[in-house]
Amino acid sequence: MFRRIEPAAADIRFSYEGREIVAQPGDSVATALLLAGETSLRTTPISGSARAPYCMMGVCFECLMEIDGVGNRQACLTPVKAGMQVQRQRGARELL
Amino acid sequence: MSETWDVAVIGAGPAGLAAATLLAEQQARVVLLDEQAEPGGQIYRGIERARNHAALLSALGDDYRRGTDVVTRFRASAAAYRPGSLVWQVTPQREVWFSNGGRSHVIEAKVVVLATGAMERPVPLPGWTLPGVMTAGALQIMLKSSGVVPDEPFVIAGSGPLLYLLVQQCLAVGARPEAVLETASRGDAWRALPHLPAAMRSRDLAKGLAMIAALRRSGVPRFRRVSDIQIEGTDAVSGIRFRGGGREHHLATRLVALHEGVIPAQQMARSIGCAFAWDATQRCFAPVVDEWGNSSINDVMIAGDAAGIGGARVAEHAGRIVALEALRRTGRIDAVQRDTLASADWQARRTHLAIRRFLDVRYAPRAEILHPADDVLVCRCEEVSASALREVVRQGCLGPNQAKAFLRAGMGPCQGRLCGPVVSEVIAEARKVNPGEVGYYRVRPPLKPIAVGELIAPET
Q1: What is the Cα–Cα distance from B39 to B77, expressed in whole angstroms?
Q2: Residue B35: which of A34, A72, A77 has the nearest Cβ?
Q3: Residues of chain B with pLDDT > 70: what percent?
Q4: Which end of chain B has a smaller Cβ tally under 10 Å, C or N?
């Protein structure tokens, strides 16, 4: 659904649900996953409906993911790091 | 003991950067906390990296490039800078609690300056929770921070200057929208006319007209006075249906960008207890501040769009004006020195504000999104519909905090950031009063999700 306007400068590789994702420095986890063709990053606790990043600036919390074992991380505010382990968040996580 | 600063500035957009820079240049001990990894806020996002990408910089335009000056001057100053800091509590005693690198920290400041900027007004439409619906600002952020654009036809819908700017920026890098749906009404165009002479004093009016002319020349299908937008799809967007020019239209698309203007980010100022008032012209709540940015809480100041929408250049001057008042409050200068030092910024701020009233009226949000149809979700997190909200109002619910108790609206992960403005409007409409009268959610810390362990053992 998305493309880069110039080729990536350097590679950062991380894992999403066991799949290797190639990103570049400065990408947020959310941008890297949208770029990799992932359309939904979590499901809601109430109805289980699919959600995806909406605002990309930390307001909507639709991009909550489990990153390196910590749930409820905002993927749009988290810069990619090599070797990061990212999981889709299904349903609720404790808010605190 | 925790660190003590003269001034803690929160937010590294134009207001926060300008404030921190001036404070440091005047030898105040100032720290700037920001949740992003890089300075610039949303408007100048990715500005330091974009410098090395000529094509991107040219596509983003001169107004974006302005951010280079703001950030360079900040970097050259002695201001302490803590990127990647999620501020999760500010107390009225000016303790600032934030999480950075998985650890919580607390600092104290004689003056706290909130420069938390704006957010895009929520656009509750049928289907707005579907994957594939984003805000225009979200697409712009991906372009600025990663040089990423849609690689398939997409639809841009809504109103306001950002809409035309995004179209221009996308066209410049070869990402052609399938259509632009403009929701601004003819009535608002007439109502805006009296504000046109003032707007003509601003360079921004010519820029805006040039953007619209570029859209016209591009041949991208443009639908005007659009209403009744419905986004279709089951697990993701498949199309958009709308009325325009008296006819029903349908477009197949997998990506829709919505935009209906911006409003102040309220969360932090409300959590401290700063007084807010309803702004009928900008159709949003804004904190009560005096001309120097003093909020209702002593030594808590608010600068830039967080205090009322004016745009990036206004925010920059407001940041400097607030910084000068902070210098006075900390005893570094007196009121006469403050007034002298601020006079150029007051002048510049007035010039940049000249177009604002025209924009506020010309691109006023329309009833369709302020008072969404019954089946539309107003609270995305807890999946509360407009009809459920209207039903509890019929049962006697008077305001947003009661609605929270009845429906859990505003209790999900976004903590009411996105549904708050909608919930107040819907309740106000149902009660036939204005949103100022029904009020807003009480906002409590923590303002960001943090691990319990961080609460127990803050690092100082």
Answers
A1: 13
A2: A77
A3: 98
A4: N
CATH number at residue A35: 3.10.20.440
Q: What are the C-alpha distances in Å from B87 to residues B102, B103, B326, B353?
A: 12, 12, 20, 30
Answer yes or no: are the C-beta atoms of B46 and B347 closer than 8 Å.
no
A37: containing domain:
12-89
Q: Closest partner residue to A26 among B145, B255, B446, by Cβ?
A: B145
Q: How far is B368 from chain A (nearest CA, A)?
A: 20
The answer to whether position A50 is within a domain reads: yes
- Proportion of chain A above pLDDT 70, given as a percent: 95
Task: Output the six-digit token pair for A74.
Answer: 């905002």
Q: Which residue ranges form the domains of chain B, and what is each CATH number? A: 3-119+263-333 (3.50.50.60), 122-260 (3.50.50.60), 371-438 (1.10.10.1100)
- Enumerate the residues of chain B whose CB falls inside 8 A of the CB of residue A77: 35-36, 86
| This prediction's pTM | 0.96
Whether A95 is covered by a domain: the verdict is no
Confidence band, pLDDT 50/70/90 cuts, at residue B203: confident
Note whether A29 contacts B: Cβ–Cβ < 8 A: no
Nearest CA in chain B to A72: B449
Whether A27 maps to a domain, the answer reads: yes
Q: How many domains does chain A have?
A: 1
**Quick check: B263 pLDDT over 70?**
yes
Give the C-alpha distances (Å, rounded to integers) separating A80 from A30, B35, B146, B224, B388.
9, 15, 12, 40, 40
Q: How far is A29 from chain B (nearest CA, A)?
A: 11
Q: What is the mean pLDDT of residues B433-453?
A: 91
Of B104-108, B259-263, B422-426, B455-459, where does mean pLDDT reach its minimum? B455-459
Query: How far off is chain B from A59, nearest CA to CA, in Å?
Result: 6
Inside any domain, residue A2: no
